[in-house]
Amino acid sequence: MKIPALRSAPRGWTLIELLIVVTLVAVLATLAFPLFGYFRKKAQFVSCVSHLRVLHGGFMAHMMDNDMVWPQVPEDIFNSSDDERMWRWYFETLKPYGIGKPMWTCPADVLSSEEVYSTESDFTGSYIPTMFDERPNTAFLWGNQPWLIERGEMHGKGDGPNIVMPDGTVRQGPSLFPK
Predict the structure, then answer these.
(1) How confident is the model at residue 81, as a pLDDT?
(2) Dihedral of CA 70/76/77/78: which sign?
(3) How far apart (Å, rounded) are the C-alpha atoms in residues 124 and 104?
(4) What is the SS3 assignment for 172?
(5) Which of the four, 15, 69, 153, 156, has the lowest number of CB atoms within 10 Å?
(6) Would residue 28 count as lying in a domain?
(7) What 8-state DSSP symbol labels residue 107?
(8) What crossing angle do the helices spanning 15-65 and 83-94 adopt, rounded to 10°?
(9) Which residues contact 60 (CB under 8 A, 6 or more apart)?
(10) Gap between the Cα atoms of 172 and 61, Å rounded
(11) What is the DSSP string of 53-70?
């Protein structure tokens, strides 16, 4: 008759093994943590560029429906000191083209982002449209005049605000603060 072999009990973690694992996790977390801020800023920049391209498409669609005339802010709104009325006018004008209220704000623009998602605040935006005259194709004839300019340097690079050109490209304009 054969005697069954004794099985050894499963071995647990030793204190040294546990300390090594905890140390490795802490080192990896320490290395990865600063990258989270970088990736958040990069995502905000990409989202901002996306918003500007969507706005360009909305302005282009509006012009195509209106004999290539840039949307003209009514004179009473243009001459008033009420900025909220002008933002609301642009929002209502481009709304039929699928441009929602959040498209007017850069995610890095803390003040406007909070106002957009608040129900009781006035409407503002992060992007300022250029004022063109009412002649057809003026938005294209003014040469390298940008269509939209980001209000401020919100992405912290010091390279200037994002701007949208007539061909739909988004680039950074001249810095407001010399280096």
Answers:
(1) 78
(2) positive
(3) 8
(4) strand
(5) 15
(6) no
(7) T
(8) 80
(9) 168
(10) 24
(11) HHHHHHHHHHHHHTTTPP
In a domain, 25, yes or no: no
Measure the CA–CA gap between 128 and 151, rounded to whole angstroms. 6
Number of domains in the chain: 1
- Give dist(CA 70, CA 60) in Å, integer: 9
pTM for this structure?
A: 0.76
Tens-digit pLDDT profile for residues 76-126:
888 887 778 888 899 999 999 999 888 998 888 876 555 555 545 566 788
What is the domain extent for residue 136?
41-172
Residue 159 neighbours by CB under 8 Å, 6+ apart: 153, 172, 175
